[in-house]
Amino acid sequence: MTTAPSIPHSAETIGPDIRRIGTADLVACLKAGIADFMARPTHYAFLCLVYPLMGLAIGVWAAGQDILPLIFPLVAGFALIGPVAAIPLYEISRRRERGLDASWSDAFEVLRSPALPSILGLASLLLLIFAAWLYAAQAIYIWLYGSLFVTTSYGAFLGELVTTTRGWTLIGVGNLVGLGFALVTLAITVVSFPLLLDRHGGVAEAMATSVRVMLHNPGTVLLWGLMVAALVFAGSLPLLIGLPIVLPVLGHASWHLYRRAVAPAGG
Fold first, then answer.
1. β-pairing, 18-19 with 6-7?
2. DSSP output for 43-105
3. Where does the sequence pass through the membrane (predicted)?
4. In the structure, what pLDDT confidence band is assigned to residue 11 with cuts at 50, 70 and 90?
5. Residue pair 189/210 in contact by the 8 Å Cβ criterion
């Protein structure tokens, strides 16, 4: 792996040195993610079944019986909790990188990590952000349609969205609010979970380092966020069947992105 010059942190800055990364690094990370996935594909597909089920459960809980208005926010929100589902995959990539055993059971070695309390704390924060996004999406829907408006079918709801002023307003406002949630999540998690797993630090240091990666590589990190969102959306159609492939590839690729964006300790 080629290494770009790192950007030293000042005495006041928390965390390790950051490297400049570009589009070529993102492509290389995806290729490395595919290679990791191909090494143990069936194990990773099983792990990632938890991801859509968790999102679906939260969506049903937030929406009550009328889940149709939250189908798109639910799918879009998968990217918000993706780093949580990918934690075992980071461990697999880390072990493969070091030439260690990387079987299905080894993925759960993360449960023995000294940084487990920090990992759980950051994971809880992401779940709160995901729940807040679903509540916000529901609030926008109620603001436009009222709490008594019930969608009767997917076709009727889709027609309402694309043929009425309220529908276009729902799409516009929902996407704008969702973008805000996505940017916050991307900034605090682009490298935070791999950093915790690798260096056993604290939540504050991990999030601060992640934000610094984004500030030093704004265009590249935003492009990465768009790539993740596009691939998750593509994997969600139809009926989420592509997610057991898309999610592990992205999870492994995120580990390699961390390796390229953050200089090693003492490096």
1. antiparallel
2. HHHHHHTHHHHHHHHHHHHHHTT--GGGHHHHHHHHHHHHHHHTHHHHHHHHHHHTT----TG
3. 44-64, 70-90, 115-136, 142-164, 176-197, 221-250
4. very low
5. yes
Q: What's the mean per-residue pLDDT of the chain?
A: 81
10 Å CB burial of residue 233 (0-12, 13-18, 19+) is: middle
Q: Which amino acid is at 135?
A: Y
Residue 34 corresponds to which amino acid?
I
Handedness of CA 227, 55, 257, 9 (dihedral sign): positive
Buried b vs exposed e over 122-149: b needs ≥16 C-beta within 10 Å? bbebbeebbbebbebbbebbeebbeeee
Q: What's the pLDDT band for 214 if we cut at 50, 70, 90? A: very high
Note whether 75 and 130 are within 8 A (CB).
no
**Does position 12 have pLDDT exceeding 50, yes or no?**
no
Neighbours of 225 (CB within 10 A): 19
Question: What's the pLDDT tens digit per position in 21-39?
Answer: 999 999 999 999 999 888 8
C-alpha to C-alpha distance for 234 and 180, rounded to whole angstroms: 21
Counting other chains too, the contacts that 230-234 makes at CB distance below 8 Å and 24 or more residues apart are: 232/75, 232/78, 232/79, 232/82, 233/75, 233/76
| Pair of tokens at residue 6 | 């790192």
* pTM over cut 0.85: no
